[in-house]
Design brief:
Chain lengths: 248, 229, 637
């Protein structure tokens, strides 16, 4: 297969970026998208040029390190895929592919396609945990949790923290990311003690980090690789309002 | 526990304000529509001897208008409504500015928007159209009838206004915008307020869709019927 | 130097308690004065970092990813073992200990394994309390499943993403400590060298992968939770950036490296589809609970799997191992698959796979149940291959997965360098010559959360009045200079061959001769090839860009340089061990029907290698004593 790649190149966070065009031939349809970029980079190395920097690690869709906006969609056009799971067989031979970094003010570009998503960690730091220090825990089966509750908590907990929701959101809101954690912990009995503080602190930090407001366009849930549901945002809003009512 | 940001400054609170004001306005729209439906009910439908002997559309409508203007509790609701509209618009402006600021300086060169509906992304534009429409609409009726009192017979004023073609087009633009605004707004408002039970969320989408469509269709046929009558 | 494993006195079941009762502890007020560097943010490193911070130490956590939540523990799918005996199926701490020792083919240390089994019980409680959404029965109690190599159900799981859920709990604990100010994160930092002062580990030299700066960081002790090095095979189930550099460079500073050749080849990964491939995605072993493995009885059978009738299928695991069937340990399953494929029965375009079939299970339990158990794995399979595994069998193939070998550590998880500790997959301790499924998450978490934080205080109690270690010491200066020199060297070779191409060559050499099946001739050949490749690397590698700022090619080159050194040691280690045990299968030592033959008389030891400079090593043997278990021939028939 043959592709024309238009890739965002940017030297540093403050530098001006622009698209650079590459032509790539002999791409196999069994290649993953990132293997296609590996191939490009090998060619660049043999030409003595600096490679295109992009984030990736596990390449099986679970670590959340790979990013990229491909042809205007976070993680590419396959719904609920990560970039590393996207294979070249899903593109047409001869296509032009626009490859851009995740864009949002709280995700400054490090170089080329690599962005800094530390702002997501900050939201978790604000309260996205249960404070159970090592050694404190009671016997596991003393906490009885309904099967459905546990499954539902898992649906939210599955978030891989890739930031595609932010990248795709027209408001650069991290509501889906944040709400997945709020919902996961609010659904479980273990999470009840810190329930109120958690959501208030996390929402505050979310805003502090400069993310936008959710306007429920639903685009985030459409691209989420783990199919975290939009309903979690409503759940978070409920938790927030409940917490505010309780503290007033 | 203390909140670092002011009560109404967090992203979630701002959306609560949007939701409450929005739903209040939506509720008003139902009442407003109910009254205005008088305009398309044929004379033959009015029972004789009803409501002090009134027996036609003209008198019924004027009586209804008179009641709205002169029954004092209504004016409290009216002032609440004006406040809701202004707060809704002002809050929307603040949220939009904030969201713009959250976007990266470099925009996507290629953006695929197939993951969301166009109207959900353009609530601000739809809202602005509705805002302009409200100003014109109030200038045509509220100002002349209630404030200036230059047109004592509201029914005649309404019929005369809707006999102009450009008014009909203007109204259709405003009302279609309103319909789309409601379809997304009613659903979004409930989500903002925290309705998250699975069965509710499932029907919410359809309720909002029906609400938006029914409101838009009924509001639109009133001027059209009058124009062609 | 004689290896002292420092195993505490007393009966096996009391050793850990005896240790805790007699070790030195540190007053909370003094802990604040002590700096600990933890490298790695996974279940072992991250668990250690969070727990040490909870205890009040001043923790500096280094990792190369952009967030602690991305450590490769995240990718573990199937589950975590614990001897809870919730199923009333006769499980116990002793039985878990027994299974692990047996699974490891009697090549692991009794005391360590027993401690791991004991602490498994606490670990489930701990993770559950942190909000890990473990699978539950409809009565609300925790659910279990079986894994290879055991006859009880002791595996706790969270769908097929158990590693992710445990890691996120650990990550959240780290995040809390960051906020509390007890833990400083050094993200996108790669530790490239270690600094020893007066014979003790006192700090690291790290490269900031964003700015390119070489930084000095000091501490009173350093903990390595840097995982395994299966990525040395290039094609493996590991993350692309997983590497051996930290442990290897510690090895070159004096930490012994134990059993480097023991690499687990996982039987259920996706087969390679072409030369370009960078990764072999793992399909959890838990699939073998319900999936049946088979190949056609006829060579090169062109029919679709669904068209091949039952009587023409060879369920070779069920045939060869009737007692354990599809649930034999990984090394056995991988070798059996290799045997079938070598004999010409492989399936798929490259004849490099076997079928894993769910038809029987779907008929028995219904699609909904199978979906709930493995839904995400089926989805993942479809995403990568485009095939719906509810309708036709998966194609799977063995792939390099886990390093049983690692830095040699004593009972306290201390390496042979005072003040340097290794936890999780980075050490060699608990799995012997083969790791059982769902013991990896367990070992990493137990080491990080429960063992290391307790043992390290025994060492650090001597440092309460040492005060901060200055990074201006000449030792830091020297180490920094060496790191900079290596980077300059890599950038100045200006050769023609990209890093990945050399890495692929290395992987092929290793997978051919130092993987599932080894022999003397092949290993000797491999050693020569590795030496040649190392020369090629240092004379012809192409690294573009510069040392300032992000340069992923430079990162890869540095990692490959280390792989090219440890690869030789792997082959030397495999050559030296003239027996077959666990994952180490020497063709010269097998029975007539192809089962492994151990030599307990001569090889019942852990091989700890000491770096003597210039690719020369000395072998130190830690004899293994089995006082609580009868050493038998491992059989799953």
């Amino acid at each position: 297969m043959k592709f024309t790649l238009k890739i965002w190149r940017q030297e540093s966070p403050k530098a001006k970026g622009k698209l650079e065009t590459f032509n790539l031939t002999d791409v196999s349809e069994d290649m993953s998208f990132l293997e296609m970029l590996d191939m490009l980079n090998e060619q660049l190395v043999t030409e003595g040029k600096r490679v295109v920097e992009f984030d990736h690690d596990c390449r099986e869709g679970i670590c959340g390190q790979c990013s990229l906006v491909i042809n205007g969609q976070a993680h590419g056009h396959n719904k609920h895929y990560t970039t590393c799971q996207t294979h070249m067989r899903s593109f047409k031979d001869g296509d032009t592919l626009f490859i851009e970094p995740f864009r949002a003010k709280p995700f400054p570009i490090i170089r080329d396609l690599k962005v800094d998503r530390s702002s997501l960690d900050k939201i978790i730091q604000a309260g996205g945990y249960i404070s159970a220090f090592t050694g404190m825990a009671p016997e596991a089966n003393t906490i009885n949790i309904h099967h459905e509750v546990s499954e539902s908590a898992f649906d939210s907990a599955a978030c891989i923290g890739c930031g595609a929701c932010v990248a795709t959101c027209k408001n650069s809101s991290a509501a889906l990311f944040m709400s997945a954690k709020v919902a996961h912990l609010a659904k479980l009995p273990q999470g009840q003690v810190e329930r109120q503080e958690r959501v208030i602190w996390m929402v505050n930090e979310h805003d502090e980090q400069g993310f936008g407001s959710c306007t429920h366009t639903g685009a985030c849930a459409m691209v989420c690789p783990q199919e975290v549901q939009l309903i979690d945002i409503a759940h978070m809003n409920f938790e927030y309002n409940r917490a505010m009512a309780k503290t007033m | 526990m203390s909140s670092q940001r002011g009560l109404f400054k967090t992203s979630v609170m701002r959306k609560n304000v949007m939701a409450v004001t929005g739903l209040f306005i939506a509720f008003f729209l139902v009442i407003h529509l109910a009254g205005n439906l008088i305009l398309i009910i044929p004379d033959s439908w009015f029972p004789i001897e009803f409501w002090g002997g009134v027996a036609n559309q003209h008198d019924m409508y004027n009586a209804y208008s008179h009641f709205l203007v002169h029954f004092w509790p209504i004016s409290i609701v009216a002032w609440l409504l004006y406040a809701a509209i202004i707060i809704h618009a002002f809050d929307a402006l603040l949220i939009t500015l904030r969201n713009r600021k959250a976007n990266a300086d470099d925009k996507y060169i290629k953006k695929d928007t197939s993951t969301s509906t166009w109207y959900s992304r353009n609530m601000g534009i739809l809202g602005s159209i509705i805002g302009i429409f409200i100003v014109i609409h109030m200038g045509q009726f509220w100002l002349k009838y209630k404030v200036l009192g230059t047109e004592p017979d509201l029914y005649d004023l309404v019929v005369a206004t809707f006999k102009q073609g450009w008014v009909i087009i203007l109204y259709l633009i405003g009302i279609i915008s309103l319909g789309f605004h409601l379809v997304h707004g009613v659903e979004s408002a409930h989500r903002s307020l925290g309705v998250h039970q699975k069965p509710c969320i499932k029907v919410l989408k359809y309720i909002a869709m029906c609400f938006g469509i029914v409101m838009a269709v009924l509001y639109a046929i009133i001027p059209i019927i009058i124009y062609f009558k | 130097m004689a290896l002292d494993a420092k195993i505490p006195e007393g009966p096996l079941k009391d050793k850990w308690q005896n240790y805790l009762d007699s070790k030195n502890i540190i007053n909370p007020a003094n802990r604040k004065k002590i700096d600990v560097i933890v490298v790695g943010s996974g279940l072992s490193g991250g668990g250690a970092a969070a727990t040490l911070a909870e205890l009040g130490y001043n923790v500096k956590n280094f990792y190369f990813q952009d967030s602690a939540r991305r450590a490769h523990s995240v990718a573990a799918q199937g589950g975590v073992n614990a001897a809870k005996n919730y199923r009333n199926d006769g499980d116990s701490i002793y039985r878990m200990f027994y299974d692990t020792i047996k699974g490891g083919d009697y090549r692991s240390r009794e005391a360590n394994v027993y401690r791991m089994a004991q602490l498994s019980v606490d670990l489930i409680d701990h993770m559950n309390a942190q909000g890990v959404p473990f699978a539950r029965e409809y009565n609300g109690y925790l659910s279990n499943r079986s894994f290879g190599g055991v006859l009880v159900s002791r595996t706790f799981y969270a769908r097929g993403q158990t590693g992710q859920q445990l890691l996120l709990a650990t990550y959240q604990a780290i995040m809390k400590q960051v906020k509390a100010g007890n833990l400083t994160e050094y993200k996108r930092h790669e530790v490239l060298d270690f600094v020893m002062v007066d014979g003790k580990m006192r700090g690291v030299i790290a490269r900031n992968l964003v700015t390119g700066e070489i930084e000095r960081h000091s501490a009173h002790a350093v903990v390595l939770g840097t995982g395994g090095f299966g990525k040395i095979f290039y094609l493996s189930t590991l993350a692309m950036n997983s590497n051996v550099s930290a442990t290897w460079r510690a090895h070159k500073k004096g930490a012994f490296f134990a059993n480097p050749s023991w690499t687990q080849i996982h039987p259920t990964a996706l087969p390679q589809a072409g030369e370009h491939q960078s990764k072999l995605t793992l399909m959890s072993e838990s699939l073998r609970n319900d999936g049946r493995i088979w190949v056609p009885k006829k060579k090169n059978d062109p029919r679709k799997p669904g068209d091949i009738p039952q009587e023409e299928r060879d369920y070779y695991l069920e045939r060869r191992y009737p007692a354990f069937g599809n649930l034999v340990p990984r090394d056995v399953a991988s070798r059996a698959a290799k045997e079938r494929m070598d004999a010409g029965y492989g399936v798929g375009a490259l004849k490099n796979a076997v079928y894993l079939d769910f038809k029987t299970a779907i008929e028995k339990h219904g699609k909904a149940t199978i979906k709930e158990r493995y839904g995400n794995l089926f989805t993942m399979y479809k995403k990568i291959t485009g095939i719906d595994a509810y309708k036709e069998p998966m194609k799977i193939s063995p792939a390099a997965h886990f390093s049983m070998g690692g830095l040699w550590v004593d009972y306290e998880l201390g390496t042979t360098i005072p003040g340097l500790y290794a936890v999780g997959e980075a050490n060699f301790a608990d799995h012997g010559a083969n790791r059982l499924g769902a013991n990896s998450l367990l070992q990493a978490s137990v080491d990080g959360n429960f063992v290391l934080p307790n043992t390290i205080s025994n060492y650090l109690s001597n440092d309460i009045s040492t005060g901060p270690i200055s990074t201006d010491l000449p030792e830091f200066e020297k180490a920094e200079k060496e790191v900079k020199e290596q980077i300059d060297k890599l950038l100045s070779i200006d050769g023609k061959t990209p890093v990945d191409q050399i890495h692929r060559k290395l992987g092929k050499i290793l997978f051919k001769e130092v993987a599932m099946s080894r022999n003397e001739k092949g290993l000797k050949w491999a050693i020569e090839e590795i030496k040649k490749l190392r020369q090629e690397f240092w004379s012809d590698v192409a690294v573009t860009g510069d040392a300032k700022g992000v340069n992923s090619e430079l990162e890869k080159a540095g990692r490959l340089a280390d792989y090219l050194e440890i690869a030789e040691l792997m082959a030397i280690d495999a050559l030296d061990r003239k027996e077959s045990c666990g994952a180490h299968f020497r063709e010269e030592y097998q029975t007539e029907d192809g089962e492994a033959v151990r030599d307990d008389k001569n090889y019942m030891y852990s091989a700890a290698w000491e770096w003597k400079g210039d690719h020369k090593w000395d072998l130190h043997k830690e004899a293994l004593k089995y006082e609580n278990i009868e050493v038998k021939t491992r059989s799953y028939k």
